[in-house]
Design brief:
Number of helices: 18
Low-confidence stretches: none
Distance between the termini: 75 Å
Largest sheet: 7 strands, mixed
Bound molecules: nicotinamide-adenine-dinucleotide
CATH superfamily of the largest domain: Aldehyde Dehydrogenase, Chain A, domain 1
Number of domains: 3
CATH class of the largest domain: Alpha Beta
CATH topology of the largest domain: Aldehyde Dehydrogenase, Chain A, domain 1
Strand order of the largest sheet: 12-13-14-11-10-16-17
Strand content: 15-25%
Radius of gyration: 28 Å
Number of strands: 20
Shape: globular
Amino acid sequence: MATNAQMVTRKIASVNPATGEVLREFDCVSSGEVHEAVGRAREAQMDWQNRGLPERLGMLRKFQRILHARKNEVAECITRESGKPVSEALVTEVSVVLDAVRFLIENAHGVLQDEPIPHGNLATRLKRGKLARAPYGVIGIVSPWNYPFSIPATETLAALVAGNTVVLKPSELTSMGAMELQSMLRAAEIPENAFQVAVGDGLTGSALVASEIDKLVFTGSVATGKRIAAAAAERLLPVVLELGGKDPMIVLDDADLDVASSAAVWGAFVNAGQACLSVERCYVHRDLYRKFLELCVEKVKALRVGNGMDPETEVGPLITERQLRLVEAHVLDAKQQGARVLAGGERLTGLGTNFYAPTILADVSHDMRVMHEETFGPVLPVTSFETEEEAVTLANDSLYGLAASVWTGDSRRGERLARQIHAGTVMVNDVVSCFAISEAPHGGVKASGIGRTHGRFGLQEMVWLKYIDTDLMPKMKKSWWYGYGPAFRQQMEGFVDLQFGRGLSARLRGAIAAIGTVYRKKL
Ligand code: NAD
């Protein structure tokens, strides 16, 4: 029986991180309600699948038109709830989702259609093989707060287009972005139970993981990802895990310093550094190190920090004071171990409780937390290297492997290094923007996760492969269906030699043995 404590409804709130204003309160969806939502999603799934791809794409097109018409309203809602500047909300959230729909409209048919599988082995030539792609059924999505609209929306749209229904558990800090998504999908006439939002905290999320969903797409921290992977293993629930990152940026000796320093500043401070693809550590060739730092400091000092609703703002607040304390702890640890603070390094209390000055740390080392733990805040730690090999070794010296970037005037050199770096994505002469390339698969290796979202690989995660094999000689028994004995063995040996014997004569002898035995067997 439930205790009193368990029966109390848990509450969550969306709070404007720039002002502390409580925007909206929600009751956490209970475990029982999560199970009911998944049950409704299951009932709705077959109808949704049977509507067919053209009808589903038609609804997505409608959703795209609605989102486009409401772009500013949605961007402002995201800014109020998560703090990022409105122009960033437009580009990294609204536009990413509009383009994800464009990608699905152009590519879903090609990715999801049946695919013939021609057979190479002689024994199976008289059979026709094909791959069909079947939706899993009900997809559970658990999402974080840092991109409260584009992350759940891109995952949801891929799941829906493939014929799944979806139950989404958004971050407890940013439920409003998910409610916006729900209202626009409803307006696009996507059936109510094909997409449902279960707002709540971690307990609501774990109820979704424990429910009868057929696959889970999780985006969040490594710690939660590990807990989810363990729970999923209990019932072999397939999962996609999009986890944290500690993305390195390598500036080679032939890089354009002005461009690279601007990229480092934007890549480290976009969304106040709260991006899984942020530049989290920077390695600069020793000949460029001092000049690179000078340029970064100059550019960081010019950044305008403030409320994201102000169109002049370039860097907004951190999501919570708790997140800010983590950033402070990393900077303090680095300072205590000898790092130099060249810019920032302090709270901006005059602006509000969650503001931290964009910070540049020089002379950092891998002993410091800021170089091996995800900071997820506005900090750019920079150090130098001498050789390419050293740069690659430093980049790979991490538990994480989400993304990385290499900066060079020679793109072939950049691509050569890209192949040596352990990361799901390596950008040559750019940072972060891979998330907005709808064709590009997004995901990591090592502790950064399992599986992919976005692009054709993200869409393929939403279906399971079914191999359909049709025999073209339905009236013929197979020669290997028993009747074992010396003749059978000779026939099989001949058959193996026919295909794999060395040289023409060995193969011919094999053919004679195989056919002769068949012939004798028939007599
Ligand atoms: P988090 O792990 O704290 O929470 C993520 C989600 O999981 C939230 O909705 C939360 O309520 C839910 N949750 C918590 N405990 C759960 C449980 N036991 N079972 C099920 N759900 C549970 O992460 P966060 O702080 O919201 O997000 C920041 C992290 O997300 C960072 O590490 C960042 O790098 C990562 N991230 C990764 C990507 C990517 O694509 N790889 C993208 C964005 C963010």
